[in-house]
Amino acid sequence: MIVYGIITLLIIVVYFVFSIKAGKRYDIVIANFKDQYPLMFMAPVSLYIIDNLKIMERFYSQIAKIQQKMISLYGNRTALQHTRMYVAQLLSTVMVCLLGSFIFTLVSNGDQTIFFVGIIFTVLIPYAMISRLASQERERKQKILTELPEVVNKIILLVNAGETVQQALIRCVTSTKDPNSPLIRELTETVNKMVSNEPFHQVLNDLSKKCGIQEISIFTTTILLNYRKGGNDLILALRDLSHELWEKRKSISKTKGEEASSKLVFPLILIFVAVMIIVGYPALTIM
């Protein structure tokens, strides 16, 4: 029990020492991300540890996987900053879980069970956070794939009506105002670059890289190969692509339906067990 008390005191002292050393060095960084990540009050200490122990460099192969997801979610420009803050969040979570494990063990008079449960949570919670990040990336890709066929159809109609591809993209963005649409957000950024007179091929290549989805790459490549020709070549290419995208959308919808039905299995089992207990208990008491 004394050992747990000493370790708890040591963790608290080390935290305050690092907090003093970190000072206000990371205030600007934290201000930029204060509404996006929890445990921001521990961020200065976590960032100080990351910088001094060179965690980003030493565990590059593991952190690179997180950075790849950040590129998909936030783009190349801010991916490194988001990755750094996310690693800081993971480190803060581990410190809180460790400190909580020692404190609760100390309060329970050195109960080893509580300590081991706390250690298990210390391992599982960061793993769950990384899994949640992967699911966010997957959901974003599925939303983009779900919305892309409608955008392609609008472009086909607008080009058929005599507008250029650039004008059609601008019309798609201005006519669709959905703040929760990841595809529209990406297209809005693309249109803003076009309006700023950036090269059209470079803008579409940036869109392809940022989304990191094969279907978006096919979409941008199809436009780049055919938009100069215009006419029937572009329309036919976009129609073929639209057909493939609608099939992909049907597949995603089917998969989501199967996932939803599988998630209902466990609650139905619980309800069945509860009903069996309610019905069977009076019979057992009579016997």
Automatic annotation (TrEMBL):
Pfam families: T2SSF. Coiled coil: none annotated. Residues 155-282 form the Type II secretion system protein GspF domain. The chain crosses the membrane at residues 6-23, 86-107, 113-134, 264-284. It is a multi-pass membrane protein. One of its GO terms (cellular component) is plasma membrane. It is found in: Cell membrane. Keywords: Cell membrane, Membrane, Transmembrane, Transmembrane helix. Its main location: membrane. This is Type II secretion protein F.
